[in-house]
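ok so I'm stuck.
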Amino acid sequence: MKMNKRFRELIDELDHKDLTKLYRDLCMTGGGYMKQILAEKIKEIEEQEKRICSTCGNNINPYYVNDYVLMFGPRDFKKRVYFCAMDCMEYFIFQLKTMKKKELTPKR
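replied:
not stuck anymore, here's the structure
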């Protein structure tokens, strides 16, 4: 019954406009819009829980406090990498610096 209570609380938070949109979606289109939103949210949660360390390949427990995330890249194409420990992140950054030095070294 706990889910019913939370669902009711969610419904109570919606305004009239959102309630009528939700009702129309469920009654007239079989809930297609709701299905899409729910599927996207479920996928987002599952992806968060499926993180893999970019250095060692270990699965990262999303409920463990000491995991690390690094975002890098150009402004319009950011990349996000995850690490299970500080040493994995340090190794990744070291390798990144090494690659950058090789790019900047003039070729003869």
